[in-house]
Amino acid sequence: MTLTTQPQAGTGVQPQPVPGSPGSGRFGAGAFPWVMAGAVAVSVCGASLSLNGVLRGWAWFLPVLTTVVVVSLTMALLRTFRAQPLLVAAGGLASLALILTFTFFRRDSIAGFLPSQATFDALGRHLRRASETVLAESSPVAPNAGIVLVTCAALGLVVILVDALALPLGMPATSGLGLLAVLVVPAMIKPQSVGWLGFATTAAGYLVILACSQWFAPDARTQADTARNPGQVRRAALTGGVALVVTLLLQLVVPGFDQGTFPQGSRLNPWGTATGLNPMISLGNSLRTPTGEGRITYATNSATPLYLRSVTVDRFDGESWSPDDRNANRRAGTGRMDAGHEILAPEQTRQVTVVNTGDFTSPYLPVPYAPESVNGLTGRWSWDPATLSIKGTDTNSRDQQYLVQSSVPKLTTELLDASSAPVQGVPEEFIRPPSNVPDIVRTTAESVTADSRTAYAKAMAIQRFLRGPGFTYSLESPVQNGYDGNGLSVLADFLTQKSGYCIHFASAMAVMARLEGIPSRIAVGYAPGRQTGATVSVAGQGALPEYEVDARDAHAWPELYFQGLGWVPFEPTPSRGVVPAYAQDSSASGGTSTNEQNNDGLVPSNGAAAPSSAPAPAPLPLPGSGTADAGNQLAPALYTAAGVLLLVLLAASPRLVRRGIRARRLRGTGTGRDRLAEQPLVWSELQDLATDYGVRPVPSETPRTFSARLRGSPALRLRSEPDPGGAKDTGSGADTGNGPGHGAGTFNAQTVHAVTALTEAYERHQYGRPAGQDATRHGLPEEAAVEHIGQVRQALRRNAGTVGRLRADWLPPSVLSRWGSVARWPFGVLGRAATRVGRAASALWRRTRRGLRRLRAG
Question: Which residues form the Transglutaminase-like domain (predicted)?
Answer without folding.
Answer: 494-574
